[in-house]
Amino acid sequence: MDHLSSSQMNLYFQCSLKYKLQYVDGLPKLFKASGLVFGSAVHFAISWFHKNQMAGRQVTLEKLHSIFTADWYGQKVESEIRYREGETEASQILLGKEILSLYYH
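That's the PD-(D/E)XK endonuclease-like domain-containing protein sequence above. Prediction below.
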């Protein structure tokens, strides 16, 4: 192993068995928490936005929304997404688009 991330170290200190199962044995996760999917998709969309802006390409809000949605569905294909009580996929996608709209403007 070349390096340890802070999340790897935190997991080890929380539960060394979980660390072993995830990082040593490489067992796949059965699901992703909706909050992680949400954060990752927003981050990906903002990163894409800035890369295109820096390259001098015009970015529309609609395209930014579609990048967010595509990343969300890409993560959904990889594994099941589990939502907290009261959350739905539609509500999280709508919230993400609202946040990206505020960021864009």
